[in-house]
Design brief:
Blueprint: E1 7-8, E2 18-19, H1 39-45, E3 54-61, E4 64-66, E5 71-79, E6 87-92, E7 97-103, E8 108-113, E9 119-127, E10 136-137, E11 141-146, E12 150-160, E13 165-168, E14 173-176, E15 180-189, E16 199-204, E17 207-215, E18 221-226, E19 232-240, E20 249-250, E21 254-259, E22 262-269, E23 273-275, E24 279-289, E25 307-312, E26 315-321, E27 323-325, E28 334-342, E29 349-357, E30 366-367, E31 371-376, E32 384-389, E33 393-394, E34 401-407, E35 416-421, E36 424-425, E37 430-431, E38 436-440, E39 449-457, E40 466-467, E41 471-475, E42 483-489, E43 492-494, E44 500-506, E45 513-518, E46 521-528, E47 533-536, E48 546-554, E49 563-564, E50 568-573, E51 578-583, E52 587-590, E53 599-606, E54 613-619, E55 625-630, E56 633-634, E57 642-650, H2 671-681, H3 691-708, E58 729-739, E59 742-752
Parallel strand pairs: 4-11, 14-21, 23-31, 33-41, 43-50, 52-59
Antiparallel strand pairs: 1-2, 3-5, 5-8, 6-7, 6-9, 9-10, 9-11, 12-13, 12-15, 15-18, 16-17, 16-19, 19-20, 19-21, 22-24, 24-28, 25-26, 25-29, 27-28, 29-30, 29-31, 32-34, 34-38, 35-36, 35-37, 35-39, 39-40, 39-41, 42-44, 44-47, 45-46, 45-48, 48-49, 48-50, 51-53, 53-57, 54-56, 54-58, 55-57, 58-59
Helix pairs in contact: 2-3
């Protein structure tokens, strides 16, 4: 595009042109993006190049504060000669990274910082260096940040899943059952500095909601959704656990009254005109009048339950237990009941039929408008249906059979029989054989409790339909108590570490499934109980650091009641914590050619820190001195402090290496340098004459490198003392401990005699 570098246009009015390209020159080559080095300049100016060491100091005022309070940080960077320039950063050595920084002015920088997190840790300044001065780290300054007061705010919203709209709820308001409520807690400090971490516990009249404990997210809030608010008065409170930066706090209560939701009943018929020999099938629907879609939908924890009654005028045709259809499986809460009966129960002609719902603990009653069923007479003979049970009461898992007998038996009735339980069809229609039909327990599962079992005959070419009187049938509930326990090994683990979760159900003959609960909420899938112990899969990689409660719920079976284990606490440690680093003594003494007394350095892990820590002498070490650590690294396990022993050895007085004669410019050349230079000289030799010179030059430069390599030289038998040995005095030595992204320093005085 015109105006960009190296863009040439043919006409001044053109918008686009052609790149002219970059020239290939010595130095940085813009054409290739590579670079070249002037070897002669590098060799000739090597001895005159300098890169000056620096010393960085940091002071904080004050060093004990309440979270959010300002701290004045002053950084000074000095060198033996000259004034360093560039930037400095101020780092809290507790895996919190840089908290501020700026540009040096006359070798100094000062600023006010309010973002220090809570806790006790060290703060250090880092000078990045410039083209002349080397970078350096300051002394570590201890800082204590005490937690400040926090404020927890509770907010409730009513969510309409139909529209996605959320509206605020005023404390003391009344809403019908079936609302989807969002309960949110926000935590902040008075200083508005930092983000709160930790847990929120939502309670309703003192009882924990949902999973009970909810982790604050990165914006210091958390929320819970619930549809389980039963009719009555509710009082919600959010309690914050606190952390290193913020003290615990509790919200003001928010009250809410839940009233029973109203319902509406509707009725439909399969065929509005039937002969008296047929059956009539009615379908009743109980719809909820909740808070959704202008009051026509509900989203409660339960759909309507209970019994509906079918009537023709004042004549009761029968009852049926409704089948619940709860949100979110259904679009909204509702209930259905399908009821089939012989048309012969109705009078010939027009019949008005209604259904009425009696309500339950969450929903009010309602009645449908009437529908009309017209019944016509037929010339078929009447039939009678009777039902017998193999047993009136059975234990769970015990086989049983229902048998229907249709009369007359001459001829035998044909067709089918539909068995019902509590007015609802169970199993499929069973064909008659010699006037009988049976249904076994292997084909149905009514569930524990009392039931009314009946049989409805379909009718055939000879006989009208008929229905039996209901027979009482009871499946007893399990009566033997069970005990469930959970084992968590280990109970403390770094985030992402392996944890074994095992459950045990007694008595040992119990069957069914076990379900793991994490902080009160379902975790994973149910596991079939196959023996004395069941292993439940568990992954800690996605868990927030802190304490978590694990439980196991046993489903129960035909003989044993359900049970839930006591909670077992699992502590998840942060993948990166911090550690403190200190020296056991303030000084060590050493003579030339000797070894200083050992200095013991201690690293203490905090907040679950577990990374390997390595040690190095990084500042103030005098010339001729070497550091040695035993051990060279440590790996924390738990909170136990770890130590390493530092010894410093000083070289004895020595004489200077002379190299060849008085000119020692090449005494540092390594073997590769000799080979490289030989290659440079060969550039001017013609190709046909290169073979013999190549051999001779390589031999010559290998020999040169062998006597003038790095660190080698001819030591004169006499000469002046080396200038590389430190003068007697006191030197401040800095030791740096590095573990993961955390760096800590300690210092002591080395006295050279």
């Amino acid at each position: 595009m015109k105006g960009t570098p190296k863009c040439i246009v043919a006409n001044s009015a053109d918008r686009y042109g052609v790149l002219s390209g970059w020239g290939s020159t010595a130095g940085y080559d813009l054409a290739s993006g590579l670079g070249s080095v002037n070897a002669a300049n590098l060799v000739n100016n090597w001895s005159s190049s300098t890169f000056r060491s620096t010393s960085t100091s940091l002071s904080l005022s004050p060093i004990t504060i309440t979270h959010g309070s300002p701290v004045t940080a002053t950084v000074k960077v000095s060198a033996t000669t000259g004034t360093p320039t560039g930037s400095v950063s101020i780092n809290a050595l507790a895996s919190n990274g840089s908290l501020g920084g700026g540009t040096l002015g006359n070798g100094g920088f000062s600023t006010s910082l309010s973002g220090f997190p809570g806790g006790s840790y060290s703060v250090q300044a880092h000078y990045a260096g410039d083209g002349t001065f080397a970078g350096s780290d300051s002394n570590a300054v201890p800082l204590t940040v005490n937690p400040e007061a926090s404020n927890t705010k509770l907010q409730m919203l009513l969510v309409n899943p139909s529209s996605g709209v959320a509206s605020s709820i005023t404390s003391g308001a009344t809403y019908p059952y079936g609302g989807l409520y969002l309960i949110r807690a926000d935590v902040a400090g008075a200083s508005a500095q930092g983000s709160a971490t930790g847990n929120i516990i939502f309670t309703d009249a003192g009882t924990p909601l949902g999973g009970g404990t909810f982790r604050l997210n990165s914006t210091s809030n958390t929320e819970d959704q619930t549809t389980a608010l039963a009719p009555g008065v509710h009082s919600f409170v959010a309690a914050y656990s606190g952390d290193a930066s913020f003290n615990p706090s509790q919200s003001a209560p928010t009250s809410l009254t839940i009233a029973k939701a109203q319902t509406s009943s509707s009725l439909t018929v399969g065929s509005a005109s039937v002969p008296d020999s047929a059956t009539v099938t009615l379908t009743a629907k109980i719809s909820t009048q909740g808070v959704g879609n202008s009051g026509s939908n509900g989203y409660g924890f339960y759909a309507p339950s209970g019994i509906v009654v079918f009537q023709s005028g004042s004549t009761k045709l029968g009852t049926a237990t409704v089948t619940q259809r709860a949100f979110p499986i259904a679009a909204s809460d509702s209930a259905l009941a399908v009821f089939t009966f012989p048309a012969s129960l109705l009078a010939a002609g027009s019949n008005n039929i209604t259904v009425s719902y009696g309500g339950d603990g969450n929903y009010g009653p309602s009645s449908s408008s009437a529908i009309t069923v017209n019944v016509t007479n037929s010339a078929l003979a009447a039939s009678a249906t009777a039902i017998t049970l193999s047993a009136a009461t059975v234990a769970p898992g015990t086989p049983y059979t229902f048998t229907a007998q249709v009369t007359p038996t001459s001829p035998y009735a044909s067709g089918t029989v539909q068995f019902t339980s509590d007015g609802q069809a169970i199993g499929k229609p069973m064909p008659l054989s010699q006037g009988q039909a049976s249904l076994s327990s292997s084909m149905i599962n009514p569930g524990p409790g009392a039931h009314a079992i009946a049989a409805i005959y379909s009718g055939d070419a000879n006989y009208k339909s008929s229905a039996s009187a209901p027979a009482a049938f009871t499946i007893t509930a399990p009566t033997i108590a069970s005990t469930t326990t959970v084992s968590v090994t280990p109970v403390t683990v770094v985030q992402g570490g392996a944890v074994a979760v095992t459950s045990s159900v007694s008595p040992g003959s119990a069957a069914g499934t076990v379900q793991l609960l994490l902080d009160g909420s379902l975790y994973g899938q149910p596991v079939v109980v196959t023996g004395a112990n069941s292993s439940l899969p568990f992954n800690t990689a996605t868990l927030e650091p802190g304490s978590h409660v694990l439980q196991v719920a046993y489903s129960g079976d035909a003989a044993y009641l359900p049970s839930i284990s006591p909670g077992s606490t699992l502590n998840i440690l942060a993948a990166v914590g911090t550690f403190t680093f200190s020296s056991s003594g303030s000084s060590a003494t050493v003579a030339h050619g000797g070894i200083a007394n050992a200095v013991v350095l201690t690293a203490t892990p905090l907040d679950g820190f577990h990374s390997t820590i390595t040690f190095a002498c990084t500042g103030g070490l005098p010339a001729g001195a070497t550091c040695s650590f035993a051990p060279a690294s440590v790996t924390p396990s738990g909170s136990t402090a770890l130590t390493t022993s530092l010894t410093i050895a000083m070289a004895g007085n020595s004489v200077q290496s002379t190299g060849f004669g008085t000119d020692n410019r090449f005494h540092w050349f390594p073997l590769t340098t000799g080979v490289a230079i030989s290659g440079l000289i060969l550039v001017g030799v013609p190709r046909r004459n290169r073979r013999r010179p190549i051999v001779l030059l390589l031999v010559a430069f290998v020999a040169l490198a062998s006597v003038a390599g790095c660190g080698s030289g001819i030591v004169a038998s006499s000469g002046s003392s080396s200038g590389n040995n430190a003068a007697p005095g006191t030197y401040s030595v800095t030791v740096t401990a590095t573990g993961g992204s955390t760096i800590q320093t300690a210092s002591f005085n080395l006295i050279v005699q």
